[in-house]
Amino acid sequence: MDLREEFLNRGLGLKEMFLLLFLLLSLSINGNVVEGRGSISLSKEEDLEIERLLKIINKPAVKTIEDGYGQTFSCVDINKQPAFDHPLLKNHKIQMGPGSLPKVIKDKKASSLGMSLKIGLKNGGCPPGTVPIRRIKKEDLIRAKSSPNFGKGYPSNPQGPDSAKFHLTNKNVFIAQFAFQSTYKNRRKPFGSRAVLNVWQPKIIGHQNSASLVILLDGSPPEEIRSIHAGWIVNKGVYGNYLPHLSTSWTNDGHRETGCYDVFCPGFVQVSRDLPVGIPFSPTSVYNGTQYFIILTVYKDSEKGDWWLFYDNDRKQVGYWPRALFNSTFSEYADILQWGGIVYNAGIKPWPEMGSGHMPSDDQQYMKACYIGGMQMLLYRGGAIRIETDTPRRLIQTSPSCYPVKTDGSVPDENYAILLGGPGGNNC
Question: What is the 3-state secondary structure (H, E, C) of the chain?
């Protein structure tokens, strides 16, 4: 029995394989991994063991594609992608598309913000029957060993308009978000979320990260929260560079045992052949200059029950989180929708930038601060409700002096918008 079969028979998925590999590295690697320098000494046996485990993690590829920014995407059999290493997805029948599409309110004036980022792998991406999965390299694993937050995704903050009891306890995380909790009953519950986000390249150090996200979650206690995140993130510990990347994250228990970024553990099912999670965004917005934005939609298929990720106004399908990953009411609908920014400092000061690195305080703020607008709650079997200025809401700011969030009705968009971010620094 090989190691992969042993792990699966024990009910372990790819995340656990990573954790065991990191344990192996921590026991066998001599030297410290430090940003930009460090010495690694591996014996021949240790090197061979890492190579063997990389073969388990990286699925056989029929083709590889370089993204031009140091990443390689492997075109793997769509039915043999990492998602299906998850024990709950062992007999999952892959869905090539949702049974129902979200009936969104299209952002007709989004183009007034700037330019929509059209991204995708070159030459049409992967061949039919395969999907692009970011290939994990030896240096990724060694770098990941020194990242305390590698692959775990973000802690979710379940704070909604009617909840003030939860306090974020992770001292290395700051958030600036807008939260909406539906007061609608039954089939008027949130079946999805949509927003326009301008894309920036905030400065970070080492294993810090900074993101702008669309978030859906249930109303469970923090240690049990079920959530999905989608947006852009700058995270060198995961991606190996300082560019923003299309990022997803999920959990079924507050990130205690389940969930991680993208496809670093089993869960998210990739279906697009040319638009993989983890793909970098370039160019990025310029302060008081050209703005580049993305439109993201997360929607629960009312027929099959899976949570789908769509990109841009034309709702291009990226992939989905199968319903089987979640229990509680989150397998049926979300309780709370959030939009906003999160930074993680990994115990390193100064704190990183959020968004543009500037606070929302000037005229034409949408060209100077991180912007999220066009926010909508999607409904059962189609339909959408705009998040308007009179919508019950809550602004969440765990460090308002460093990362404020404010509402702004003057942004040239059809409906409500928030602006957020800041420079970080030593006194957050």
Answer: CCHHHHHHHCCCCHHHHHHHHHHHHHHHCECCEECCEECCECCHHHHHHHHHHHHHHCCCCCEEEECCCCCEEEEEEHHHCHHHHCHHHCCCCCCCCCCCCCCCCCCCCHHHHCEECCCCCHHHCCCCCEEEEECCCHHHHHHHHCCCCCCCCCCCCCCCCCCCCCCCCCCCEEEEEEEEECCCCHHHCCCEEEEEEECCCCCCCCCCEEEEEEEEECCCCHHHCCEEEEEEEEEHHHHCCCCEEEEEEEECCCCCCCCCECCCCCCCEECCCCCCCCCECCCCCCCCCCCEEEEEEEEECCCCCCEEEEECCCCEEEEEECHHHCCHHHHCCCCEEEEEEEEECCCCCCECCECCCCCCCCCCHHHCCEEEEEEEEECCCCCEEECCCCCCCEEEECCCCCCCEEECCCCCCCCCEEEECECCECCC
